[in-house]
Amino acid sequence: MHTRKDQRDLTAAERRRFVAAVLELKRAGRYDRFVRTHIDYYKADGATGLRAAHMAPSFLPWHRQYLLEFERELREVDPAVTVPYWDWTRDRSPVGPPWGEDFMGGNGRRGDLQVTTGPFAYAAGNWTVSVGVTEDRFLTRDLGRPKDPLDLPTREELAWATGEAVYDTEPWNSTSRGGLRNRLEGWGQGRGSARWRNHNRVHRWVGGHMLGGASVNDPVFWLHHAFVDLVWSRWQRRNPGAPYLPAAQPPAGSAQRGRVVARDEPMPPWDVTPAQLEDHSGLYRYG
Predict the structure, then answer these.
(1) Closest Cα partner for 108 from 91, 94, 129, 128?
(2) CA dist 223 → 78, 240, 243 (Å)
(3) 118-145: per-residue pLDDT in tens?
(4) Confidence class for position 265, pLDDT limits 50, 70, 90
(5) What CATH code is carried by the domain that includes residue 218?
(6) In principle, which of 62, 226, 244, 267 could form an S-S bond with 85, CB 3.0–4.6 Å?
(7) Which DSSP string corresponds to the chain?
(8) Distance in angstroms (rounded) separating the CA atoms of residues 180 and 176
(9) Contact assessment for residue 241 and residue 164, using Cβ atoms and an 8 Å cutoff
(10) Number of domains in the chain
């Protein structure tokens, strides 16, 4: 059993150890495998076949397992390391935590959005983007999107999601109007910034490599998704009678049949089901 801490509560030594473990995975070529996996399973509503990671009920358990796999590899490097979380309803500025020189580094510079500070700056020589959907070899960010400003989600916006009493609803995709999953994932209605809620808005706010399937190239991805996982964990405690849905595949003739993961079906690329991931109390806790 280990504890995931709020990144603002990490000691200087804990920040150093986390960064060092991430850099070692990158040096060994293990980090880029995680980038490839996320790209491979980032399927949109309009794509054919199974959607496991996004725009589907399994968004939350898929990323819970993904975090566990990453954390396991980090802990093989340094058993004292866990994945911290970034509460973006609390730390909402492009300066200060988690953007310190000794941790995530800062914003991208004007023009090419290249991150030039911190341990993941290209110039530091340890973080070359080699798996991605753009040509950029350096990490990019556009915190707050100054040319078209965007704010991080508020506690009220998060409560709009966590106030739901059921896990997910038909049609089990990005157009689902109710349920925790889609409201937390953040596929909203309307135009412009209003379309991006909660999880999705954070990706948009960070910008740069955090946009799209290759978002794992920015290590802040893990802090963001650890908080999303914490939100789900808290919701589960408040709603013990609200299990993962759908319990079974949609009926024959449904456009979603065979395209979503039911509660007791394995989520690729792992042989683990959403039901097996509903209770994490024997694996880790949040501090």
Answers:
(1) 94
(2) 18, 26, 25
(3) 999 999 999 999 998 777 899 999 999 9
(4) very high
(5) 1.10.1280.10
(6) 226
(7) -EEE-BGGG--HHHHHHHHHHHHHHHHTT-HHHHHHHHHHH---TTSSS---SSSSTTHHHHHHHHHHHHHHHHHHH-TT----B--TTT--SSSSTT--TTTT--PBPTTT-BB-SSTT-GGGTS----SSSSS--S-B--TT-TTS--PPPPHHHHHHHHT-SSS--TT-STT--SSHHHHHHTB-SSSGGGGB-HHHHHHHHH-GGGSSTTGGGSTHHHHHHHHHHHHHHHHHHH-TT---S-SSPPPTT-TTTTTS--TTS--TTSS--TGGGS--TTTEEE-
(8) 10
(9) no
(10) 1
Residue 229 pLDDT more than 90?
A: yes
Q: What is the mean pLDDT of residues 46-66?
A: 94
- Residue 136 has a pLDDT of 84
Give residue 109's Cα distance to chain centre: 24
Mean pLDDT throughout 158-174?
96
Residue 190: its pLDDT value, please? 67
